[in-house]
Amino acid sequence: xxxxxxxxxxxxxxxxxxxxxxxxxxxxxxxxxxxxxxxxxxxxxxxxxxxxxxxxxxxxxxxxxxxxxxxxxxxxxxxxxxxxxxxxxxxxxxxxxxxxxxxxxxxxxxxxxxxxxxxxxxxxxxxxxxxxxxxxxxxxxxxxxxxxxxxxxxxxxxxxxxxxxxxxxxxxxxxxxxxxxxxxxxxxxxxxxxxxxxxxxxxxxxxxxxxxxxxxxxxxxxxxxxxxxxxxxxxxxxxxxxxxxxxxxxxxxxxxxxxxxxxxxxxxxxxxxxxxxxxxxxxxxxxxxxxxxxxxxxxxxxxxxxxxxxxxxxxxxxxxxxxxxxxxxxxxxxxxxxxxxxxxxxxxxxxxxxxxxxxxxxxxxxxxxxxxxxxxxxxxxxxxxxxxxxxxxxxxxxxxxxxxxxxxxxxxxxxxxxxxxxxxxxxxxxxxxxxxx
Length: 437
What we know:
alpha/beta; 6-stranded parallel beta sheet
Protein backbone atom coordinates (compact mmCIF):
# COMPACT_ATOMS: atom_id res chain seq x y z
CA UNK A 1 0.00 0.00 0.00
CA UNK A 2 1.24 3.45 -0.87
CA UNK A 3 2.54 5.45 2.10
CA UNK A 4 0.88 8.83 2.56
CA UNK A 5 2.03 11.83 4.55
CA UNK A 6 0.49 15.19 5.24
CA UNK A 7 2.31 16.83 2.36
CA UNK A 8 1.06 14.52 -0.36
CA UNK A 9 -2.28 13.62 1.24
CA UNK A 10 -4.44 15.70 -1.06
CA UNK A 11 -2.57 14.36 -4.09
CA UNK A 12 -3.50 10.78 -3.27
CA UNK A 13 -6.98 10.57 -4.76
CA UNK A 14 -7.87 10.49 -8.42
CA UNK A 15 -11.58 10.67 -7.69
CA UNK A 16 -11.85 14.20 -9.12
CA UNK A 17 -10.15 13.52 -12.42
CA UNK A 18 -13.37 14.16 -14.32
CA UNK A 19 -13.91 17.70 -13.03
CA UNK A 20 -13.39 20.25 -15.79
CA UNK A 21 -11.30 23.32 -15.10
CA UNK A 22 -11.89 24.98 -18.44
CA UNK A 23 -13.30 28.45 -18.54
CA UNK A 24 -13.04 29.01 -14.78
CA UNK A 25 -10.23 31.52 -14.36
CA UNK A 26 -12.53 34.21 -12.98
CA UNK A 27 -15.05 34.27 -10.15
CA UNK A 28 -18.45 33.04 -11.37
CA UNK A 29 -20.79 35.96 -11.97
CA UNK A 30 -24.12 35.61 -10.18
CA UNK A 31 -25.60 39.06 -10.77
CA UNK A 32 -25.82 39.15 -14.55
CA UNK A 33 -29.06 39.28 -16.47
CA UNK A 34 -32.45 40.78 -15.64
CA UNK A 35 -32.81 39.22 -12.19
CA UNK A 36 -30.05 40.50 -9.90
CA UNK A 37 -30.87 38.12 -7.04
CA UNK A 38 -28.31 35.59 -5.87
CA UNK A 39 -30.10 32.30 -6.44
CA UNK A 40 -29.65 29.60 -3.79
CA UNK A 41 -30.45 25.91 -3.66
CA UNK A 42 -31.01 24.04 -0.41
CA UNK A 43 -29.87 20.42 -0.36
CA UNK A 44 -30.94 18.80 2.90
CA UNK A 45 -34.18 20.36 4.11
CA UNK A 46 -34.12 19.60 7.83
CA UNK A 47 -33.99 22.12 10.64
CA UNK A 48 -30.34 23.08 10.13
CA UNK A 49 -30.86 23.56 6.40
CA UNK A 50 -33.96 25.68 6.96
CA UNK A 51 -32.03 27.78 9.47
CA UNK A 52 -29.18 28.26 7.01
CA UNK A 53 -31.61 29.56 4.40
CA UNK A 54 -32.95 32.06 6.93
CA UNK A 55 -29.36 33.16 7.58
CA UNK A 56 -28.87 33.62 3.84
CA UNK A 57 -32.12 35.62 3.53
CA UNK A 58 -30.97 37.92 6.33
CA UNK A 59 -27.43 38.35 5.00
CA UNK A 60 -28.17 41.84 3.68
CA UNK A 61 -27.97 40.76 0.02
CA UNK A 62 -30.68 40.17 -2.57
CA UNK A 63 -31.07 36.42 -2.14
CA UNK A 64 -33.76 34.14 -3.52
CA UNK A 65 -34.39 30.44 -2.84
CA UNK A 66 -35.02 28.77 -6.19
CA UNK A 67 -34.55 25.01 -5.60
CA UNK A 68 -34.84 22.43 -2.82
CA UNK A 69 -33.68 18.82 -2.65
CA UNK A 70 -34.01 16.09 -0.04
CA UNK A 71 -34.29 12.33 0.20
CA UNK A 72 -37.73 12.76 1.78
CA UNK A 73 -40.66 14.68 0.28
CA UNK A 74 -42.06 15.64 3.69
CA UNK A 75 -38.82 17.39 4.65
CA UNK A 76 -39.10 19.64 1.62
CA UNK A 77 -42.74 20.40 2.38
CA UNK A 78 -42.11 21.24 6.04
CA UNK A 79 -39.13 23.44 5.24
CA UNK A 80 -40.88 25.19 2.36
CA UNK A 81 -44.05 25.85 4.38
CA UNK A 82 -42.08 27.24 7.33
CA UNK A 83 -39.98 29.53 5.16
CA UNK A 84 -42.97 30.73 3.16
CA UNK A 85 -44.71 32.10 6.27
CA UNK A 86 -42.12 34.82 6.80
CA UNK A 87 -40.03 35.01 3.64
CA UNK A 88 -42.53 34.52 0.84
CA UNK A 89 -41.06 37.29 -1.28
CA UNK A 90 -37.66 35.59 -1.21
CA UNK A 91 -38.91 32.19 -2.37
CA UNK A 92 -39.42 31.02 -5.94
CA UNK A 93 -39.55 27.23 -5.70
CA UNK A 94 -42.31 25.75 -7.85
CA UNK A 95 -43.02 22.04 -7.57
CA UNK A 96 -40.84 21.48 -10.65
CA UNK A 97 -37.81 22.63 -8.63
CA UNK A 98 -38.53 20.51 -5.56
CA UNK A 99 -36.37 17.45 -6.12
CA UNK A 100 -36.71 14.21 -4.16
CA UNK A 101 -34.40 11.21 -3.91
CA UNK A 102 -30.75 10.24 -3.67
CA UNK A 103 -29.87 11.97 -6.97
CA UNK A 104 -31.98 15.06 -6.37
CA UNK A 105 -28.95 17.19 -5.51
CA UNK A 106 -27.69 17.20 -9.10
CA UNK A 107 -30.78 18.96 -10.45
CA UNK A 108 -30.98 21.47 -7.59
CA UNK A 109 -27.36 22.53 -8.07
CA UNK A 110 -28.05 23.36 -11.71
CA UNK A 111 -30.69 25.92 -10.75
CA UNK A 112 -28.60 27.99 -8.36
CA UNK A 113 -25.59 30.29 -7.98
CA UNK A 114 -24.93 29.26 -4.37
CA UNK A 115 -25.63 25.84 -2.87
CA UNK A 116 -26.33 25.13 0.82
CA UNK A 117 -25.31 21.58 1.74
CA UNK A 118 -26.99 20.46 4.97
CA UNK A 119 -27.71 16.77 4.48
CA UNK A 120 -26.26 14.21 6.89
CA UNK A 121 -22.48 14.59 6.53
CA UNK A 122 -21.94 11.21 4.92
CA UNK A 123 -23.20 12.74 1.68
CA UNK A 124 -20.99 15.82 1.89
CA UNK A 125 -18.06 14.63 -0.30
CA UNK A 126 -20.39 13.43 -3.05
CA UNK A 127 -22.43 16.62 -3.04
CA UNK A 128 -19.46 18.96 -2.77
CA UNK A 129 -17.80 17.31 -5.76
CA UNK A 130 -20.90 18.02 -7.84
CA UNK A 131 -21.10 21.62 -6.61
CA UNK A 132 -17.51 22.17 -7.70
CA UNK A 133 -18.01 20.35 -11.00
CA UNK A 134 -20.89 22.68 -11.81
CA UNK A 135 -18.89 25.74 -10.68
CA UNK A 136 -21.10 27.02 -7.86
CA UNK A 137 -20.30 28.79 -4.59
CA UNK A 138 -21.23 26.86 -1.46
CA UNK A 139 -22.01 26.81 2.22
CA UNK A 140 -21.32 23.39 3.77
CA UNK A 141 -22.48 22.38 7.20
CA UNK A 142 -19.82 20.64 9.25
CA UNK A 143 -18.31 18.04 9.29
CA UNK A 144 -17.30 17.59 5.67
CA UNK A 145 -16.86 13.78 5.68
CA UNK A 146 -17.21 10.70 7.88
CA UNK A 147 -14.27 8.57 6.72
CA UNK A 148 -10.75 9.13 5.42
CA UNK A 149 -11.49 8.41 1.73
CA UNK A 150 -14.25 11.02 2.03
CA UNK A 151 -11.79 13.56 3.39
CA UNK A 152 -9.49 12.88 0.45
CA UNK A 153 -12.36 13.47 -1.98
CA UNK A 154 -13.23 16.77 -0.32
CA UNK A 155 -9.62 17.98 -0.41
CA UNK A 156 -9.30 17.10 -4.08
CA UNK A 157 -12.51 19.00 -4.81
CA UNK A 158 -11.22 21.91 -2.73
CA UNK A 159 -8.19 22.22 -5.01
CA UNK A 160 -10.50 22.55 -8.01
CA UNK A 161 -12.77 25.00 -6.16
CA UNK A 162 -9.76 27.20 -5.49
CA UNK A 163 -8.76 27.14 -9.16
CA UNK A 164 -12.31 28.05 -10.11
CA UNK A 165 -12.31 30.84 -7.49
CA UNK A 166 -15.42 29.51 -5.79
CA UNK A 167 -16.22 30.89 -2.34
CA UNK A 168 -16.68 28.02 0.11
CA UNK A 169 -17.69 28.55 3.75
CA UNK A 170 -18.10 25.70 6.25
CA UNK A 171 -20.33 25.90 9.33
CA UNK A 172 -17.54 25.96 11.90
CA UNK A 173 -19.06 29.20 13.09
CA UNK A 174 -16.57 29.85 15.87
CA UNK A 175 -14.28 31.07 13.09
CA UNK A 176 -16.84 33.88 12.61
CA UNK A 177 -17.47 34.54 16.32
CA UNK A 178 -15.88 37.70 17.70
CA UNK A 179 -14.77 36.38 21.08
CA UNK A 180 -12.94 33.49 19.41
CA UNK A 181 -11.40 35.69 16.73
CA UNK A 182 -10.14 38.24 19.25
CA UNK A 183 -8.78 35.67 21.71
CA UNK A 184 -7.09 33.57 19.04
CA UNK A 185 -5.48 36.65 17.48
CA UNK A 186 -3.97 37.63 20.83
CA UNK A 187 -2.74 34.11 21.44
CA UNK A 188 -1.16 33.98 17.99
CA UNK A 189 0.42 37.40 18.66
CA UNK A 190 2.16 35.83 21.69
CA UNK A 191 0.30 37.60 24.50
CA UNK A 192 0.45 34.49 26.72
CA UNK A 193 3.46 32.83 25.10
CA UNK A 194 3.50 29.43 23.42
CA UNK A 195 0.48 27.19 23.98
CA UNK A 196 1.71 23.91 25.51
CA UNK A 197 -1.58 22.29 26.58
CA UNK A 198 -5.32 22.63 26.36
CA UNK A 199 -8.68 21.05 27.16
CA UNK A 200 -11.67 21.16 24.81
CA UNK A 201 -15.16 19.92 25.73
CA UNK A 202 -18.56 19.11 24.29
CA UNK A 203 -20.39 17.27 27.06
CA UNK A 204 -24.17 17.27 26.67
CA UNK A 205 -27.28 15.13 26.95
CA UNK A 206 -27.38 13.83 23.40
CA UNK A 207 -29.85 14.26 20.56
CA UNK A 208 -33.13 12.92 19.23
CA UNK A 209 -34.15 9.32 18.52
CA UNK A 210 -36.75 8.38 15.89
CA UNK A 211 -38.55 5.05 16.41
CA UNK A 212 -38.42 2.37 13.75
CA UNK A 213 -41.64 2.10 11.73
CA UNK A 214 -42.89 -1.32 10.53
CA UNK A 215 -42.90 -0.40 6.83
CA UNK A 216 -39.38 1.01 6.74
CA UNK A 217 -36.55 -0.65 4.87
CA UNK A 218 -33.21 -0.77 6.67
CA UNK A 219 -31.94 2.03 4.44
CA UNK A 220 -34.85 4.30 5.33
CA UNK A 221 -34.54 3.56 9.03
CA UNK A 222 -30.86 4.45 9.07
CA UNK A 223 -31.42 7.55 6.95
CA UNK A 224 -34.11 8.83 9.33
CA UNK A 225 -31.89 8.02 12.34
CA UNK A 226 -28.72 9.18 10.65
CA UNK A 227 -27.03 10.38 13.84
CA UNK A 228 -26.52 6.81 15.06
CA UNK A 229 -24.74 5.37 12.02
CA UNK A 230 -21.17 6.17 11.09
CA UNK A 231 -21.65 6.16 7.33
CA UNK A 232 -24.05 9.07 7.80
CA UNK A 233 -22.80 10.81 10.97
CA UNK A 234 -19.26 9.72 11.75
CA UNK A 235 -20.15 9.42 15.47
CA UNK A 236 -20.62 12.49 17.64
CA UNK A 237 -16.88 13.04 18.05
CA UNK A 238 -16.91 13.92 14.34
CA UNK A 239 -20.39 15.36 13.80
CA UNK A 240 -20.55 17.58 16.88
CA UNK A 241 -17.17 17.73 18.58
CA UNK A 242 -15.47 18.83 15.36
CA UNK A 243 -16.09 22.39 16.58
CA UNK A 244 -13.75 22.01 19.56
CA UNK A 245 -11.19 19.97 17.64
CA UNK A 246 -11.11 22.75 15.06
CA UNK A 247 -10.51 25.33 17.80
CA UNK A 248 -7.60 23.26 19.14
CA UNK A 249 -6.02 23.06 15.68
CA UNK A 250 -6.72 26.74 15.06
CA UNK A 251 -4.99 27.72 18.29
CA UNK A 252 -1.97 25.54 17.45
CA UNK A 253 -1.96 26.54 13.75
CA UNK A 254 -1.17 22.92 12.92
CA UNK A 255 -2.58 19.39 13.15
CA UNK A 256 -1.69 16.56 15.56
CA UNK A 257 0.90 13.94 14.66
CA UNK A 258 -0.80 11.26 16.76
CA UNK A 259 -4.02 10.67 18.68
CA UNK A 260 -4.87 8.23 21.45
CA UNK A 261 -7.90 7.86 23.67
CA UNK A 262 -10.74 5.86 25.10
CA UNK A 263 -14.48 5.68 24.62
CA UNK A 264 -17.49 3.42 25.07
CA UNK A 265 -21.25 2.99 25.23
CA UNK A 266 -21.82 3.50 28.94
CA UNK A 267 -25.18 5.27 29.04
CA UNK A 268 -26.94 5.06 25.67
CA UNK A 269 -26.77 1.29 25.14
CA UNK A 270 -30.13 0.47 23.54
CA UNK A 271 -30.61 -0.78 20.00
CA UNK A 272 -32.10 2.59 19.07
CA UNK A 273 -28.63 4.16 19.39
CA UNK A 274 -27.26 2.25 16.42
CA UNK A 275 -23.50 1.70 16.42
CA UNK A 276 -22.08 4.90 17.94
CA UNK A 277 -20.39 5.54 21.28
CA UNK A 278 -21.77 7.91 23.91
CA UNK A 279 -18.40 9.12 25.25
CA UNK A 280 -14.90 9.85 23.99
CA UNK A 281 -11.77 11.17 25.69
CA UNK A 282 -8.75 11.67 23.44
CA UNK A 283 -5.33 13.29 23.50
CA UNK A 284 -4.00 15.17 20.48
CA UNK A 285 -0.20 15.28 20.39
CA UNK A 286 1.45 17.89 18.15
CA UNK A 287 4.96 17.89 16.69
CA UNK A 288 6.21 20.37 19.32
CA UNK A 289 5.25 18.00 22.13
CA UNK A 290 2.19 19.96 23.22
CA UNK A 291 -0.93 17.96 24.05
CA UNK A 292 -4.60 18.88 23.74
CA UNK A 293 -7.07 16.87 25.81
CA UNK A 294 -10.51 16.45 24.30
CA UNK A 295 -13.69 15.19 25.95
CA UNK A 296 -17.17 14.72 24.50
CA UNK A 297 -20.13 12.68 25.72
CA UNK A 298 -23.87 12.17 25.43
CA UNK A 299 -25.03 11.47 28.99
CA UNK A 300 -28.41 12.65 30.24
CA UNK A 301 -28.90 14.33 33.61
CA UNK A 302 -25.30 15.26 34.35
CA UNK A 303 -23.04 18.31 34.22
CA UNK A 304 -22.73 19.74 30.71
CA UNK A 305 -19.76 21.68 29.36
CA UNK A 306 -19.04 23.21 25.95
CA UNK A 307 -15.87 25.36 26.01
CA UNK A 308 -12.10 25.41 25.65
CA UNK A 309 -9.17 26.23 27.94
CA UNK A 310 -5.47 26.58 27.07
CA UNK A 311 -2.23 26.82 29.03
CA UNK A 312 0.79 28.66 27.65
CA UNK A 313 4.31 29.54 28.74
CA UNK A 314 3.26 32.99 29.96
CA UNK A 315 -0.41 32.57 30.84
CA UNK A 316 -3.67 30.81 30.09
CA UNK A 317 -6.94 31.33 28.21
CA UNK A 318 -10.62 30.47 28.45
CA UNK A 319 -13.06 30.68 25.50
CA UNK A 320 -16.68 29.54 25.16
CA UNK A 321 -19.52 29.51 22.66
CA UNK A 322 -21.36 31.79 25.11
CA UNK A 323 -19.31 34.77 23.87
CA UNK A 324 -16.77 34.60 26.69
CA UNK A 325 -13.02 34.97 26.23
CA UNK A 326 -10.56 35.70 29.05
CA UNK A 327 -6.77 35.67 29.07
CA UNK A 328 -4.57 35.72 32.20
CA UNK A 329 -0.83 36.16 32.60
CA UNK A 330 1.34 33.64 34.45
CA UNK A 331 0.64 35.35 37.79
CA UNK A 332 -3.12 35.04 37.39
CA UNK A 333 -3.75 38.66 36.41
CA UNK A 334 -6.49 39.18 33.87
CA UNK A 335 -5.00 40.80 30.76
CA UNK A 336 -7.92 40.51 28.32
CA UNK A 337 -11.67 40.06 28.59
CA UNK A 338 -13.91 40.13 25.54
CA UNK A 339 -16.80 42.59 25.55
CA UNK A 340 -19.64 40.78 23.78
CA UNK A 341 -21.92 43.81 23.48
CA UNK A 342 -23.13 44.15 19.93
CA UNK A 343 -21.56 40.89 18.75
CA UNK A 344 -23.34 39.42 15.72
CA UNK A 345 -24.75 35.90 15.77
CA UNK A 346 -21.95 33.76 14.29
CA UNK A 347 -24.44 31.53 12.48
CA UNK A 348 -25.68 34.64 10.70
CA UNK A 349 -22.24 36.22 10.30
CA UNK A 350 -20.82 33.37 8.25
CA UNK A 351 -23.59 33.98 5.70
CA UNK A 352 -23.23 37.77 5.86
CA UNK A 353 -19.58 37.48 4.88
CA UNK A 354 -20.09 34.74 2.30
CA UNK A 355 -22.84 36.53 0.42
CA UNK A 356 -21.05 39.86 0.66
CA UNK A 357 -18.05 38.33 -1.10
CA UNK A 358 -20.25 36.77 -3.77
CA UNK A 359 -22.20 39.98 -4.37
CA UNK A 360 -18.94 41.92 -4.78
CA UNK A 361 -17.39 39.32 -7.08
CA UNK A 362 -14.54 38.63 -4.66
CA UNK A 363 -12.87 35.29 -3.96
CA UNK A 364 -12.54 35.55 -0.20
CA UNK A 365 -13.30 32.16 1.35
CA UNK A 366 -11.67 28.75 1.00
CA UNK A 367 -12.61 27.31 4.39
CA UNK A 368 -12.81 23.78 3.11
CA UNK A 369 -9.17 22.80 3.68
CA UNK A 370 -8.91 23.49 7.42
CA UNK A 371 -12.44 22.12 7.84
CA UNK A 372 -11.42 18.87 6.15
CA UNK A 373 -8.37 18.50 8.38
CA UNK A 374 -10.36 19.20 11.55
CA UNK A 375 -12.91 16.64 10.35
CA UNK A 376 -10.02 14.24 9.85
CA UNK A 377 -8.87 14.94 13.43
CA UNK A 378 -12.26 13.74 14.68
CA UNK A 379 -12.20 10.67 12.44
CA UNK A 380 -8.74 9.66 13.68
CA UNK A 381 -9.95 10.25 17.25
CA UNK A 382 -12.83 7.86 16.60
CA UNK A 383 -10.44 5.26 15.21
CA UNK A 384 -8.15 5.60 18.23
CA UNK A 385 -11.01 4.95 20.63
CA UNK A 386 -12.63 2.19 18.59
CA UNK A 387 -9.34 0.29 18.28
CA UNK A 388 -7.70 1.21 21.59
CA UNK A 389 -4.49 2.08 19.75
CA UNK A 390 -2.32 5.15 19.31
CA UNK A 391 -3.07 6.30 15.77
CA UNK A 392 -0.30 8.09 13.91
CA UNK A 393 -1.68 10.82 11.63
CA UNK A 394 0.39 9.82 8.60
CA UNK A 395 -0.44 6.13 9.04
CA UNK A 396 -4.15 6.88 9.29
CA UNK A 397 -4.06 8.57 5.92
CA UNK A 398 -3.48 5.17 4.34
CA UNK A 399 -7.01 4.04 5.23
CA UNK A 400 -9.19 3.01 2.31
CA UNK A 401 -12.17 1.98 4.42
CA UNK A 402 -15.19 3.61 2.76
CA UNK A 403 -18.23 3.49 5.06
CA UNK A 404 -20.80 4.44 2.42
CA UNK A 405 -23.21 1.86 0.93
CA UNK A 406 -22.34 0.19 -2.34
CA UNK A 407 -25.67 1.38 -3.76
CA UNK A 408 -27.85 4.35 -2.80
CA UNK A 409 -31.39 3.00 -3.04
CA UNK A 410 -34.27 2.46 -0.60
CA UNK A 411 -34.13 -1.30 -1.14
CA UNK A 412 -30.33 -1.51 -0.80
CA UNK A 413 -28.63 -2.34 2.48
CA UNK A 414 -26.02 -0.21 4.26
CA UNK A 415 -22.83 -2.03 5.23
CA UNK A 416 -23.65 -2.26 8.95
CA UNK A 417 -26.82 -4.24 9.74
CA UNK A 418 -28.61 -5.29 12.95
CA UNK A 419 -28.56 -8.82 14.33
CA UNK A 420 -31.67 -10.96 14.86
CA UNK A 421 -32.47 -8.98 18.04
CA UNK A 422 -32.14 -5.58 16.37
CA UNK A 423 -28.76 -4.64 17.87
CA UNK A 424 -26.00 -3.23 15.71
CA UNK A 425 -22.34 -4.25 16.03
CA UNK A 426 -20.36 -1.85 18.22
CA UNK A 427 -16.58 -1.40 18.14
CA UNK A 428 -14.71 -3.04 21.02
CA UNK A 429 -11.20 -1.69 21.68
CA UNK A 430 -8.57 -4.32 21.02
CA UNK A 431 -10.76 -6.13 18.50
CA UNK A 432 -10.20 -4.43 15.15
CA UNK A 433 -12.92 -5.17 12.62
CA UNK A 434 -13.29 -3.58 9.20
CA UNK A 435 -16.66 -1.83 9.52
CA UNK A 436 -15.32 0.41 12.27
CA UNK A 437 -12.02 1.59 10.79
